[in-house]
Prior knowledge:
Layout: H1 13-39, H2 41-48, H3 53-87, H4 95-106, E1 110-112, E2 120-121, E3 134-136, H5 138-186, H6 195-216, E4 222-223, E5 235-236, H7 239-296, E6 297-298, H8 310-324, H9 328-356, H10 358-379, H11 386-399, E7 404-405, H12 406-438
Parallel strand pairs: 6-7
Antiparallel strand pairs: 1-2, 1-3, 4-5
Coiled coil: 248-296
Keywords: Coiled coil
Amino acid sequence: MAVAxxxxxxxxxxxxxxxxxxxxxxxxxxESSLLALQDHAGRRLLEGADLTGETRSRWAAAEALxxxxxxxxxxxxxxxxxxxxxxxxxxxxTQGELSELTELLRGSGITLDAHxxxxxxxxxxxxxxxxxxxxxxxxxLLDRMNGWYAQALDVVVIADAVxxxxxxxxxxxxxxxxxxxxxxxxxxxxxxxxPSGDDLEQITRELTVLRAEVIGDPLAxxxxxxxxxxxxxxxxxxxxxxxxxxxxxxxxxEVEAVLDVRQDAEQRLMRVRDVLSxxxxxxNEARQARAEVLSKIAASVVPxxxxxxxxxxEQLSAAADHRRHARWHRLSPLLEGLEERAEEELLRARExxxxxxxxxxxxxxxxxxxxxxxxxxxxxGLAEDSLLIERYDAARRMLWSAPCDLVAAEAAVMRYQQxxxxxxxxxxxxxxxxxxxxx
Length: 439
């Protein structure tokens, strides 16, 4: 036996009408929601899918909840229909009818068996039903349906959102992967022969596994709150997809770099040959200059000049062989390194030439200074000064003799400069004395 608990004072006619209107509106909302859930694309997909993992267990529970939701809704409909029929008996219900209506609308008069089905209704105290397991009021029944509906809808909405977001994107990425693989194979980027070829194989496996997991267990790819607890707070988890997309983009750039090598390899090889040729010519010039310095400059430390860059020429030959045999994936990194090292070799050759010719530059600078002092001597009318002539001749013999002692020559130039300065100072003093006598 199940007896409804007291529901307090009886409702007035107006209160009963308002309660019926509210419960009727709730009934329509629940019915619309259940029908929408029944027709939801996500639910239909779930029913026909071969599910795994978390989605499989949660969908099994959600299916059971949906079945119970309809049973509860039937019980709710029956109770509401009984209440409406009772209210429709007369325009002004009696006090007994209002008490009975109050019990129907507020009392725990809906009995449900263990499976959620409603075997009968108790319209008032003392009502008996068979196989009673639980008694609920209309509001309690509604609250329970709302909770179960939210749980079932979460599963359906999440699965639909993940399936709408990820499989199509995975398929697009797989199509891009196939195009990249085709290009990669055309330039020799293959598994086992090039790291990017191995990366493509890994990405292919990851996308295959990822798609199967997304289709079988979409709920495992949801991040954030559930749709019912925080609308808009959750989203499909695209972490693995994003990682695969970034990896494919890296490979695509690598393949494009190899393609670029294929298109302009000959021009780049010619530029490398030209740079190395210029480096060779500069080194030859440096060797010749070194020999000249050693023969013309005495007591000077002249750095040795290295030979031609044999290793670079060997790499250049290997690069040309890769180009002839279309081994673009091997040519690409080799050519980039060759270009850099060839420029470094040219710079080193130029520095070597500068280093070995430094003594000649010093000699040329001293010759220029000597000539400049001589011109200054002539301008000041001191060309016939015997001391200046003697010191000029001494410096000139040192600078124009071979081998030239730069230290001694620089000292001789300094003595000539000093003598000139003294002669100029003496001439200035004599002119000053003459002016004072005249005055």
